[in-house]
């Protein structure tokens, strides 16, 4: 912008007006860019918060499925182990019963021989 006193020529005034209009348009474009970038940031932050919640929810669902599978598997292993323990206890009881019966028979034989 040229400073030419109180009575500038028309071409200088027009050039100054063009320069001022150009600066205004540049400033408007800069401010519009700032507003758009801020708005995009707000929208993306909202989107990311919803996205994070959904990702967390999906992980919780998957974890619940995994926990259920683990619970079923551990229950199966526990029942199998309990069955093995029960069978071994029954075998031990049967062996004790058998041995006591054999001992009694042997005792009777010894008593009858005397």
Order of helices and strands: H
First-last Cα distance: 142 Å
Mean pLDDT: 92
Q: Looking at the structure, what is the overall shape?
A: rod-shaped
Secondary-structure-derived class: mainly alpha
Helix content: over 70%
Count of alpha and pi helical runs: 1
Summarize the biggest pleated sheet: none
Radius of gyration: 47 Å
Question: Uncertain segments of ≥5 residues (pLDDT<50)?
Answer: none
* Approximate strand percentage: under 5%
How many β strands by DSSP?
0
Question: Would you write up a description of this structure?
Answer:
It is built from one helix and no strands. It is mainly α and 114 residues long. The chain has one helix at residues 10-113. The chain is rod-shaped. It is 91% helix and 0% strand.
Topology:
Elements: H1 10-113
List keywords for this structure.
mainly alpha, 91% helix, single chain
């Amino acid at each position: 912008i040229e400073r030419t006193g109180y009575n500038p020529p028309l071409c200088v005034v027009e050039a100054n007006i063009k320069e001022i209009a150009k600066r205004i348009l540049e400033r408007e474009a800069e401010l519009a860019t700032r507003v758009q970038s801020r708005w995009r940031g707000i929208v993306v932050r909202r989107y990311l918060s919803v996205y994070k919640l959904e990702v967390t929810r999906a992980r919780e669902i998957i974890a619940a499925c995994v926990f259920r599978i683990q619970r079923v598997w551990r229950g199966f292993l526990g029942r199998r182990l309990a069955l093995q323990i029960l069978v071994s206890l029954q075998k031990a009881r049967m062996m004790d019963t058998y041995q006591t019966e054999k001992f009694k028979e042997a005792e009777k034989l010894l008593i009858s021989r005397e």
